[in-house]
Every structure is written in structure tokens, then in C-alpha cells.
Amino acid sequence: MPEIPEISAGDTAWVLVATALVLLMTPGLAFFYGGMVRMKSVLNMMMMSFGAMGLVAILWVLYGYSMAFGNDVGYGLLGSPTEFFGLAGITADSISGAIPTFVFVMFQAMFAIITVALISGAIADRTKFGAWMVFAGIWATVVYFPVAHWVFAFDSDGVTGGWIANNLGAIDFAGGTAVHINAGAAGLALALVLGKRIGFGKTPFRPHNLPFVMLGAGLLWFGWFGFNAGSALAANGTAAVAFLNTVVATAASMLAWLLVEKIRDGHATSLGAASGVVAGLVAITPACAAVNIVGAIAIGVAAGVLCAMAVGLKYKLGYDDSLDVVGVHLVGGIVGTLLIGFFATDAYIADSKLGLFYGGGAELLGKQAIAAGAVLAFSFVVTAIIAFGIEKTMGFRISSEDEQAGVDVRTHAETAYEFNDAAYGGSFTKGSGSSVNVTAPEKEGAPA
Amino acid sequence: MKLVTAVIKPFKLDDVKNALEAYGINGLTVSEASGYGRQRGHTEVYRGAEYTVDLVPKVRVVVLGDDDDAESVVDVIIKSAQTGRIGDGKVWMIPVDSVARVRTGERGHDAL
């Protein structure tokens, strides 16, 4: 079984670093989302990301990796959950490509974590933490792990992978479908099942800390180099192309979003800049190794413009996708995935598939549309079923009283900020002092 | 004695503080406040959603003074806080029954 060691030190070093970069995206996302909610919900918002980091990492090594990258059990729909259960059979000598398999396992683990965390933006201010954790575990298991198999598991000697990657042959380099359309469709389903926040569309929900949002967007962009360029799984020219396009498309998207705002609203906003960055990153994710800089600019501009317009839809259609997971990730993911069908070129990477504008005809575009539609529909339907199940059994939403008082203090028994020297009075009651001096709730979530 | 309370534009605080100091007032208390008068609020835009924010940030300055000083203190505040544009704020005074200095227990005029 142990192969002749063909580990590339350079590739391994880069993918190790890229893995850490992708992990950093999730705390980055926590800041991006956390700054956008009101002061009374920032901890809950960030905890949904951190909760995903804890739970999904464990599920991934138990059976998630096996479900995604085990040998296919049929039709490219799912990897064998038992083949690598508990990472059985993998050792330090195991090799995937030119890197140790353990590095690949961890690199892909980070994708599973952030995909789950992305969904949480749709349900800000009103979600039971326990219900979120249950949802995160089930969703990762029945939605993400299979879809990661569809998209990321390529056929290799003796191992059969997923249907989108192999049978269909759509291009999704780093997860436009598996990560962003997947999370975006799930966010839409969750927002519909949980319902609107109290006061949605009537009272202003102003972001409580826009510098946090910009800090988060910065961390996301930084981490995204691991996400996109790391997906080459090698320190090579493909990684360089992905890196290049991750800069170019993101820059174009930010400028486009700001321009839309300036023309439509009269002001270029910091929230718009941060949102434009993320929209661009989302859209270039599937395309970053398939296009040249012309395609990257086009994809960035399209994402910036379309996502900036899409975030207003929730008010017209009446669903409370609180932090625009749909408007940014679903729409941005679709934009990037479909535009590959137009802009795919072999200008930078020889023998690449060609899109409509480069003589490849409409075939690739059709494949891209099928991949996007399949992931969207699967994720939306299965997420809705999971969410209804949780809502009907343990309840997904906090009480309206708790929602008005603030999910942080009622669910986590904490408040985010203590800016007041006089504090709020009170006395030390019990325990070793891990919690702050707010009045603990009588209901749920009080620490033991 | 009188308690003079002023709600002013935050950026005028330094001017008011300096003017009161020059007049001879030894101490004051400042707190952040929010509210609206004829100025009303302002508009903010987040991802294209336009909000009318009713309450504008203000600073509340509270000064204790002798009866004889009170009207002059009001004048000093008006003069130093005035921009002439809408939203300059309000000043009012109310009578105070008694004042004590916590450190020494002195009462009345000595406590000012």
C-alpha cells in the first residue's frame, strides 16, 4: 500500500499554508457578519461560525471526508461513508497527488466548515444556538458532504468520483457550486422557514460595527488566496493564475458595487465596499483557473452590479435573509459559475475547456447551468426539509421576548461590549467566573 | 443655586467648555445624548436600504451655579455653542435645593 514517496515539499508547504488561510476565513466571516448585526446579537452571530468550526471539523474526520472522497457508491452521488471512516487506512505516508493525504483531508475540511458557517448570515438575531448546531451537523452530513463529492471528487486510478466533476464535466475550480450556491440556497430555505425578524422592513437594523465588517472582508480576501490558489493543490502556474484572478475580479467587483451605490443611492458606502469584495471573491471562485484577466474583470463587474441589485430583493419579496447570503453568495455563485460558460479560455492554462466567447460553443455553458441548477435545487429542498424538522421538534427560533431582549444575553448569557467604567452593578454569584456580570436568563442557555 | 443643562452639538463641546472655564466655572458634567428637535434626523443607507435615523447624537452639559451666575452661564453657553444653523440645541435651568461636596461634606455655595 505505501507508495514510493513522491511528496513535493513545495506543494506540501503551500497547501499547508493555504489550509490555514482557509481556516482563517471562518473567523473572518464571523467578523464580517458580526459587524452587520445589532449590538445585542453580535456574539450569537460569531458563535454560529465558531460552532461550525468545532462541529464540522469533527464530523469531517469521522465520516465527512469518506462521504466526499471515498470511492463512489453509485452514479457519482456519494462517496463510501465507510471506506475512510475515522480516516481509517490513511497514514503519514499516504499521498494524494504530490501532497500527504492528511494535508488534503484538512484542506477540504476547511471548505466544509466555511460552507456551513456561510449559511448563518441568513438567520441573524433569532436563532437558537442549539438548534443551529443540530442543523449544522445534519446539513453538513446530508447536503455538503454529498455535494462536495459531486463537485470536488475527481476520478483517479481505481477510484470513482462525483458526477459534476466527471460525468458532466462542469468547471468549478474552488467551489462556486459546492460552497456558494450550496450555502446561498440553504440560506434562502432557512430564512423562509424561520421567518422575518421582529420589525423587519419597518425598523432600521443598522450594522453595529462597520469596521468589523471591513476587517472581516479583509480577512476573507486574504484567506481566499488559500481557498482559490490553494485549490490547485500544488505550488504551480495554475495556483498563480487562480491568485491573479482572485485579485483582479475582486477589485473589479468592489469598484462596480460602489459605482452602483453612487448612482442609485448617492453615496459609496463602506458596507458596499466590503460587500463588493465578497461578491467578487464568490464569483471568481469557480472560475479562477478558467479565465484570463478579461474574464476576471467581466466576472467581477457582473458580480458587483448584480449582487448590489440583488440584495434589495428581500424587501420586495418579503423574506428576511438578514445578511444577504442569497444576494451575495447565491447570486454571486451563479454569476461566476455561468460566466465560465462564456469566458473560459486556454490563454493561461493550456488544454483548458473553452467558453462561448473563445470558440467553445454553448456546450460548456449548458454544463455550467446544469451544475448550478442541480446544486441549487438539491440544497434548497433538503435544507427546507431539515429546517422544518428542527422547527417542528426542538424549535429553531428563540421566543419573541428573547429576540427583543437580545439573543446574546438570553442564549449565551453574555453581552459583547463593556464600554462603561461604572459597569452595570451586580454581584458574583457562583462558579469560577467564566461569565460576565449580566443578569443570567431564567430560561435557556445558562452556564452550569 | 441653579442647575443649568445644555444639549448642544458634539463638536461645540470644546468651545463651550473653554468659554465656561474662562467665565470662572470650576466644574461641569458631560454625557452623550441623542435626540431631535426641529432639525429632525438624517438618512443612512445600508446595502441600498434607506433608513431615516430620528435621533441625532448630541452632548449634554450640566453645570451647577449660584443664582446670580446662572443667567450669565446660559449666555456663555449660547454664545459658545451657537452656529446659527438648525440643530444648535437648547439650554434650560432649574432651581436646586442643596448641593454637597462628597469629599468634605461642605454644603451650598462652598460646595460649588
Can you describe what's shown?
The complex is a heterodimer of chains A (448) and B (112). With 448 residues, chain A is mostly helical. Chain A has a single domain, classed as Ammonium transporter AmtB like domains (Ammonium transporter fold). Chain A is 61% helix and 1% strand. Chain A has 15 helices and 2 strands. A two-stranded antiparallel ribbon of chain A has the order 1-2. In chain A, strand 1 and strand 2 form a beta hairpin. In chain A, helix 6 runs antiparallel to helix 12, helix 9 crosses helix 10 and helix 9 crosses helix 12. Chain A is globular. The termini of chain A are far apart. Chain B is of the alpha+beta class. Chain B has a single domain, classed as Alpha-Beta Plaits (2-Layer Sandwich). In chain B, the strands form 2 sheets. A 4-stranded antiparallel beta sheet of chain B has the order 2-5-1-6, with helices on one face. In chain B, helix 1 runs antiparallel to helix 2. Chain B is elongated, with a radius of gyration of 17 Å. In chain B, 21% of the residues are buried. Chains A and B meet through helix 8 and helix 9 of A and strand 3 and strand 4 of B.
Chart the SSEs and their pairings.
The complex is a heterodimer of chains A (448) and B (112).
Chain A lengths: L8 H28 L5 H28 L25 E2 L2 E2 H19 L9 H24 L10 H6 L7 H19 L15 H19 L8 H29 L4 H15 L8 H18 L2 H5 L7 H19 L19 H31 L6 H6 L1 H6 L36
Antiparallel strand pairs in A: 1-2
Chain B lengths: L1 E7 L4 H11 L5 E7 L6 E5 L2 E5 L2 E10 L1 H15 L7 E7 L17
Antiparallel strand pairs in B: 1-5, 1-6, 2-5, 3-4
Helix pairs in contact in B: 1-2
